[in-house]
């Protein structure tokens, strides 16, 4: 009995409450039984003059109490098992009542229908995810080709066009390249959102040099920094910083955070600095990404990790989707990293990522 009681309590159902519910449900039977005994005893006392009522009363009460105990055991196990429909069992000695059996059958039928419906929905969801994944991969091909065409056209224009025409063409190419990069990043974001449901299958914790990874991401985004007149600066007291993370997913998270920092730092004609400060704090490594952008309104700060939330800045920057930081929060949580944001409106924003050290 003890293991069953422990599991029963673990499900959040208090045995005491169930017992009192049983008493309430049995109240009518108890009152009816004792009233019946009382009327029978009064009748025989008046008609037959029988005064020895102790033994009959004791026997009847004992039989009734045994019946109630059996009913309580059935009641108890029914309430335990009703929360575990996949493991319902009928004890041969203490079988459930027909009413309880019928309720169990109804619940089992509902559960079966529910599981079938869930399986259908999962199949439909997997099919949709597969379709969108394939579509993203197909769309990435023309984006890559467009990038190659722009490179080729840029090289040819430098050789064949005059300086003035070349400057105009280069501005035109830069504008197209920027939009192409946005399109490529959007496709990558969509692909990663689709992958999030199977994150555990794609997660490989490993020792990663955070400094090296950060430099690789910054170097890959040179054109973004130059185009927006934002310049990165890494501050670290160590040459090698090994953390425990997944290189691909952590890289994606940092890429998103850098994109946000650059986008909201850009001011026409002004040079901005984006600082990356790495500190060792106990058995943790803390990375601070500090921008000199527009900052985040105090009222919006607590909601920046909500999906599709763009806030006041989203009304100023029309290409804001509210997905980037939401994705970052999911990845940080799955990687067991701590992600925080501090901001002062009109001054800038600091994103703090805390990593566990590789031991």
Question: Rg to the nearest angstrom?
Answer: 35 Å
Number of helices: 11
The quaternary organization reads as single chain
Cα(first) to Cα(last) distance is: 45 Å
Fraction of residues in helix: 55-70%
Major sheet description: 5 strands, mixed
> Order of strands across the widest beta sheet?
2-4-5-7-6
The geometry reads as: elongated
H/E element order: HHHHHHEHHEEHEEHHEE
**Number of beta strands:** 7
List the main descriptive attributes of the protein structure presented here.
359 residues; 62% helix; single chain; two-stranded antiparallel sheet; alpha+beta
Layout of helices and strands:
Elements: H1 2-10, H2 15-47, H3 54-81, H4 98-160, H5 163-195, H6 199-202, E1 206-209, H7 210-220, H8 222-227, E2 230-236, E3 242-245, H9 247-263, E4 272-281, E5 284-290, H10 311-316, H11 324-334, E6 338-344, E7 348-356
Parallel strand pairs: 2-4
Antiparallel strand pairs: 1-3, 4-5, 5-7, 6-7
């Amino acid at each position: 009995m003890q293991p069953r009681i422990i599991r029963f309590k673990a499900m959040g159902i208090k045995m005491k409450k169930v017992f009192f519910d049983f008493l309430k449900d049995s109240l009518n039977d108890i009152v009816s039984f004792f009233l019946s005994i009382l009327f029978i005893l009064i009748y025989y006392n008046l008609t037959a003059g029988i005064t020895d009522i102790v033994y009959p009363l004791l026997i009847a009460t004992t039989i009734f109490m045994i019946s109630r105990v059996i009913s309580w055991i059935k009641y108890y196990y029914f309430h335990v098992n009703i929360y575990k429909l996949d493991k319902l069992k009928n004890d041969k000695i203490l079988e459930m009542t027909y009413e309880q059996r019928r309720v169990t059958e109804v619940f089992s039928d509902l559960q079966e229908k529910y599981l079938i419906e869930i399986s259908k929905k999962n199949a439909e969801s997997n099919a949709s995810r597969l379709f969108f994944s394939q579509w993203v991969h197909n769309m990435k091909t023309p984006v890559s080709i467009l990038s190659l065409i722009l490179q080729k056209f840029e090289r040819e224009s430098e050789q064949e066009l005059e300086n003035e025409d070349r400057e105009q063409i280069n501005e035109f190419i830069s504008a197209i390249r920027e939009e192409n990069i946005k399109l490529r990043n959007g496709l990558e974001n969509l692909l990663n959102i689709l992958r999030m449901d199977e994150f555990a299958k794609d997660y490989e914790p490993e020792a990663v040099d955070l400094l090296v990874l950060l430099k690789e991401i910054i170097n890959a985004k040179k054109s973004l920094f130059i185009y927006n007149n934002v310049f990165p600066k890494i501050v670290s007291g160590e040459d090698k910083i090994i953390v425990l993370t997944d290189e691909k997913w952590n890289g994606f998270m940092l890429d998103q955070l850098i994109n946000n920092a650059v986008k909201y730092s850009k001011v026409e004609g002004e040079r901005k600095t984006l600082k990356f400060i790495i500190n060792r704090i106990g058995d943790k490594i803390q990375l601070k990404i500090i921008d000199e952008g527009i900052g985040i309104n105090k009222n919006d700060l607590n909601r920046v990790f909500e999906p599709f939330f763009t806030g006041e800045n989203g009304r100023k920057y029309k290409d804001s989707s509210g997905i980037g930081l939401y994705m970052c929060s999911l990845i940080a949580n799955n990687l067991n990293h701590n992600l925080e944001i501090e901001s002062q409106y009109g001054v800038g924003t600091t994103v703090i990522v805390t990593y566990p050290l590789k031991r």
